[in-house]
Amino acid sequence: MNTAEKRALKGRTFRVIDVALLLWTVLWVCLGVFTAREINSLTSLSQTLVKTGDGISQTGNALRLVGLVPIVGGQIGNFGTKITDVGADIQTSGHKSQSTLQQLSWVIGFTLGLLPPLFMLALYMPLRLAWRRTVRSIRAGLARGDPAFEEYLARRAIDNLPYERLRKISDNPWSDLAAGEFKPLADAELARLGITRPWTKPTPEAT
């Protein structure tokens, strides 16, 4: 592909890119939401850990009560205290891991869902905005009806359109340019940009 072909981005090409970028954004947002939900679902393991720790703590408390019986002695009570402490540590670990997983799900979800689309937008938007400014200025030039503007459009066609496209317009577009035959080339440039000429009421011929 030559330089002219690379520069010859038609208006419809930008519309196709707009749709593709929208689908790309939706895809990554959905992927980010899915990933966040999957990571967040792991908090059920933390909840199980919390329940296990609670059960161990209850067992330790029961043994501590048994240790209060004078005949049995304090050994069982001490053992119950240790079990209760272990259960409390397990519960604390469960709560911390649950909080960490929730935060991680948000961070990864936002990162995965937003960074790729934002990166693509950062690359594409300057080109898109430059094209819109070009289209806006050309439409303003057409509205003014300046005859010299046709030559400007024709020269843009020479600069932007590939050689094969120019030969379809004219056998020798450069000769047309020198002869002042601007309209076919100007129309080709307008077509490349996706711009239609403003409709003007024909002037009745003088009789």
CA gyration radius, whole angstroms: 37 Å
Question: Biggest sheet, in brief?
Answer: none
Domains, number: 2
Low-pLDDT runs of 5+ residues are 1-8, 200-207
- The secondary-structure element order is HHHHHHHH
**Helicity level, as a percent range?**
over 70%
Separation of termini? 54 Å
- How much strand? under 5%
Reconstruct the topology from this structure.
Layout: H1 3-7, H2 11-41, H3 43-67, H4 75-144, H5 147-160, H6 163-169, H7 173-179, H8 183-193
Description:
The protein is an all-alpha fold and 207 residues long. The N terminus and C terminus are likely disordered. The two termini are 54 Å apart. It is rod-shaped.
Short synopsis of the structure:
The chain is built from eight helices and no strands.
Output the keywords.
0% strand; disordered C terminus; 8 helices; 82% helix; 2 domains; mainly alpha
